[in-house]
Amino acid sequence: MSSSRKRSRLRERRRRPRSDSRQEPLNNLLLVVVVAVGLGFDFTNGFHDTANYVATWVGTRALSPRMAVAVSAAANLAGAFVTTAVAKTSGRG
């Protein structure tokens, strides 16, 4: 390819817009909706997981209901900050 053809292709690329500015608000809205749905799912999924193992602790009388909920809340919060193993596994596909 000659150098003049390369230069004309570069000029052509500079003239073309990288993205359509009309789509940016739509992309931002879509991002907000996806994040909100993901957080909502995570929140409701936490209810189900917590109910299962709090019921085990309370049912076996290992902990009082109040203490079981407190331990569960602390464990869920710590788990969210300590490990990313599940997210990494899901990300690999």
Structure description:
Helix 2 packs across helix 3. This protein starts with a helix and ends with a helix. By secondary structure, the chain is mainly alpha-helical. It has four helices and no strands. It has one domain.
Summarize the structure.
The chain has 93 residues and is an all-alpha fold.
Report the sheet with the most strands, covering strand number, pairing sense and barrel closure.
none
Helix share bin: over 70%
- The whole-angstrom Rg is 25 Å
Give the low-pLDDT segments.
none
Which structural class is indicated by helix and strand composition? mainly alpha
What is the residue-averaged pLDDT? 80
Number of self-contained structural domains: 1
Distance between the termini: 40 Å
Helix and strand element order: HHHH
* β-strand number: 0
Q: Per the principal axes of the C-alpha atoms, what is the gross shape?
A: elongated
Number of helices: 4
Tell me the fraction of residues in β-strands, as a range: under 5%
